[in-house]
Inverse folding.
């Protein structure tokens, strides 16, 4: 049996052992440390699934203030799952202002790039890091250099914890089977779930198929909560991730 052979006839279906469905001050930090650079992943002993980058995920909103650029007109960004985000000046704030978003490292088609740039930010999730940029007469500002971009599957408001869901290769002959790693974004936390419920997202069949492929590929970004489904036999409790929203990766060229 392979993943292509499964249908989504029911709201929750089996899939290789998983059920897939439907403002304080800190010490100043250097700009390259902000958002946890790539080298941080390998330094965290608690992160075992090294194929999935766990750090540097931001939501964004446009700055509509009317004043001279670069002071205004950029974006406000914040790291998901965290109460405070480190800004370019080393201060942790609820969100950081950046003068621009640097898309140069995002290898996507011109059509995809225009689509992303035209979004108001409400459905975007970006992975990247803040880099310092100096403007003559204005000083230093931060720019968000993007490595990956993700778009929400629907307009349903996300509620819960942002996680990465990725197949870990475990195969079982019975259930529950903890074959999916659940990696909390921007935190050194990883656990396993035995099923995933995408039924609350309102996604289309095509989007559900794409989500399944992401789980078995680079990993799916999802938002939701973990539930333990009780069973008479405590050794067979199903740990389920109930998804309120998921984000599909904008694929590179």
């Amino acid at each position: 049996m392979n993943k292509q052979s499964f249908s989504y006839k029911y709201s929750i279906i089996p899939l290789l052992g998983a059920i897939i469905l439907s403002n304080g001050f800190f010490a100043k930090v250097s700009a390259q440390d902000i958002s946890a650079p790539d080298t941080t992943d390998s330094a965290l002993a608690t992160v075992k699934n090294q194929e999935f980058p766990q750090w540097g995920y931001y939501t964004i909103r446009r700055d509509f203030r009317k004043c001279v650029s670069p002071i205004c007109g950029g974006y406000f960004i914040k790291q998901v799952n965290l109460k405070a985000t480190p800004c370019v000046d080393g201060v942790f704030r609820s969100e950081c202002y950046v003068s621009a978003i640097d898309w140069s490292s995002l290898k996507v088609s011109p059509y995809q790039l225009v689509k992303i740039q035209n979004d108001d930010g409400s459905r975007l999730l970006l992975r990247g890091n803040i880099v310092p940029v100096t403007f003559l007469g204005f000083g230093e500002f931060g720019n968000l250099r993007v490595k990956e971009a993700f778009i929400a599957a629907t307009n349903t408001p996300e509620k819960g914890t942002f996680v990465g869901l990725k197949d870990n290769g475990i195969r079982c002959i019975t259930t529950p089977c903890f074959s999916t790693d659940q990696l909390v974004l921007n935190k050194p936390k990883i656990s396993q779930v035995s099923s995933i419920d995408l039924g609350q997202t309102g996604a289309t069949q095509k989007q559900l198929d794409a989500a399944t492929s992401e789980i078995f590929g680079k990993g799916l970004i999802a938002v939701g909560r973990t539930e333990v489904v009780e069973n008479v036999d405590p050794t067979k409790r199903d740990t389920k991730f109930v998804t309120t929203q998921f984000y599909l990766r904008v694929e590179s060229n």
Remarks:
- The first strand starts at residue 13 and ends at 15.
- Residues 1-49 have pLDDT under 50 and may be disordered.
- The longest helix spans residues 205-216.
